[in-house]
Here is the input.
Amino acid sequence: MIWGTVMVLFFTFSCAPTKAQNVTNPLQEQNTMSVLWYQKAGEAKALYYQGYNIGKMRLDDILSKKQWKQGLKPAVVLDLDETVIDNSPLFATKIMSPVSAYLNWDMWVERAEAKALPGAIEFLKYADSKGIAIFYISNRKEAQKAATIINLQRVGAPQADAAHVLLKQKGERGKEARRLQVARTHDIVLLFGDNLGDFSGFEGLSVTQRAQLVDKQREEFGRKLIVFPNPMYGDWEGAIYQYNSRRSDLEKSKLRKDMLEPFQR
Here is the structure.
């Protein structure tokens, strides 16, 4: 009788979902369509090819006309995450797994296993073959530099070394200081990014201000500034929260919905 009771208890506990398995994050759930589109939509892949194809055409035009500042070597500047390498598996994991099993950002970076995005390595190798200096400016932490360089070398990115991979310094807010550092010795002829913060002047702007500055700089997009799609995260989302990441998930969810513009009868 005791044995039968033990077996029933074992069966009950082994088949019942654990608390960790039942844990969900509604805010992460809302990201399902964004990550799914990013990973599976042919349109996403097409936009990366399109962006890098435009970059190659612009580079050819710039080189043919020698359109860079005299005395300076031409350079291209690229963001890394969702520009050169793909971190979407991390965000898919956050949706699929319980909180206790999350693979966090620091762990992911240290794995150095992000894959290259469509067209990125082909463009970078082409630029390298033309003698163009390549700088990777990312807001990854300086402490993650070794892992980041390993990841870039694994995917075949040229000029992936300590001098060309410029990561976020302690106390630094955005990327402008590092762009200016490059600009002291090079003429930056093209910039690539998935976030408007990868370009000058967009740091800390409101949702409305960001859109207004895009309109003001409309002639630069596709000419000097190349933007890639990233619906998963970015300053576009931070602006919705007034850059206050400490807001609760409930507050963030409400702000997301408040920003929607439904049809008005």
Summary: Residues 38 and 44 are 6 Å apart (CA to CA). Residues 24-256 form a domain with the Rossmann fold fold (CATH 3.40.50.1000).
